[in-house]
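Below is a concrete protein record.
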Amino acid sequence: MAPVTKDAGTATGILFIWAHPQPGVRYSIGVDTAAGQGEDSTAISVWAIGRAEDDPDVQVAEFASAYVNHAEAFAFVLAIAAYYKTYMSREQTKWQE
């Protein structure tokens, strides 16, 4: 399989991961949905939250597609969130399973 040479600014339908989940890191996920008809893109971005006040947040992953609507985006968000909560404790996520 050949490596993907496109960058996140020109690619569609590809999950770019620049940093995999790490122990002790808190993550935030932002979602912007679209109609999925090829005009505007649904975008999902994952950010590692800075550990200190002067430590910047860093984008660690992104998915974008002009052909994924708001209802379909749910499955992508759920899968990405499950992956990035791998090392996070319940206290960090406030996730109620």
